[in-house]
Design a protein that fits this description.
single chain, 273 residues, alpha/beta, Rossmann fold, two-stranded antiparallel sheet, 12 helices, 9 strands, 14% strand, elongated
Length: 273
């Protein structure tokens, strides 16, 4: 057996051995003294012929502990990502209808490693209520399930937060926007249409681009308007976004209005008996 490999196995074995572990006389393997399941197993026969005999494995209680830690970390990531927003419950699996746009959003999540490496995000644009924010929320939850850090925040909230802070506080907030693996800026254009607001939006978009980390932007602004913006400040913002975000157009019926109408109708039926 390779002496280096032997040292690695011995080191792992020593690190995972507890005082109450024991050797099971039936198979000669080390067992956990708490859950009484194996903490090591035999190599396949072809490797045993080369001198490799046993290697460490995770016992039942260790596996349960790791899963608990994983779920706790996932819960923390989700609470940090949405800050009590309803998007925390948005998932691809629970979508009433899988539109072509939602399918593309799912493809983005499924190919996240490649997009993350390239620093490529999405620009989800279209009319109000067509599912842009929902698609972004579904992507966020899919990535959090993979223990990726995400921050989903409204663009107007970002501008308001930066307007109400100065110096160190503003710098700290800006850093919090740069930290996650994916930043989702929801509803670009809903913020105050002032020179200050536009400057803050540009600062966030520009600094995020410089980190090389992906961002997803949702907006009601048509792509044609973004590409031909007459206002210089608007053009600077849109140009930076389009450098690193793939545009996906959301069209069709207003799902939000349709759901609201259905809920109102159901409530009226209940009241009328």
């Amino acid at each position: 057996m390779n002496p280096i490999f032997t040292k690695i196995i011995d080191k792992v074995d020593a690190a995972t051995t507890a005082p109450d572990d024991y050797i099971n006389s039936a198979d000669g393997l080390k067992y956990c003294g708490k859950c009484h399941t194996p903490k090591e197993t035999f190599f396949p026969a072809e490797l045993q012929a080369q001198g490799f005999t046993k290697h460490p494995v995770m016992c039942k209680c260790a596996a349960e502990r790791r899963e608990y830690e994983r779920m706790s970390y996932m819960t923390m990531l989700r609470s940090e990502a949405f800050r009590d927003m309803p998007a925390a419950g948005w998932r691809f699996e629970s979508a009433a209808v899988t539109t072509p746009q939602l399918a593309k959003a799912r493809g983005y999540a499924q190919n996240w490693d490649e997009f993350k490496k390239a620093g490529i995000g999405l620009l989800l644009f279209g009319n109000v209520g067509t599912g842009k924010s929902y698609a972004a929320g579904c992507i966020a939850n899919a990535l959090i399930d993979r223990l990726e850090s995400v921050l989903f925040v409204g663009m107007s909230d970002v501008v308001n937060r930066m307007q109400g802070s100065f110096g160190t506080d503003r710098d700290h907030y800006m850093k919090s926007l740069m930290r996650p693996d994916l930043l989702i800026l929801d509803d670009l254009g809903a913020e105050r249409n002032t020179s200050f607001g536009k400057e803050r939006v540009f600062d966030v978009v520009d600094k995020r681009l410089l980190t090389g980390k992906p961002m997803i932007v949702t907006t009601n602004t048509p792509l044609s308007v973004m590409k031909q913006a007459a206002d210089l400040d608007d053009r600077r913002i849109f140009d930076r976004i389009l450098e690193v975000c793939v545009p996906i157009r959301f069209d069709g019926e207003n799902f939000r209005r349709g759901n609201a109408s259905a809920n109102i109708k159901k409530a009226a039926e209940m009241l009328n008996g």
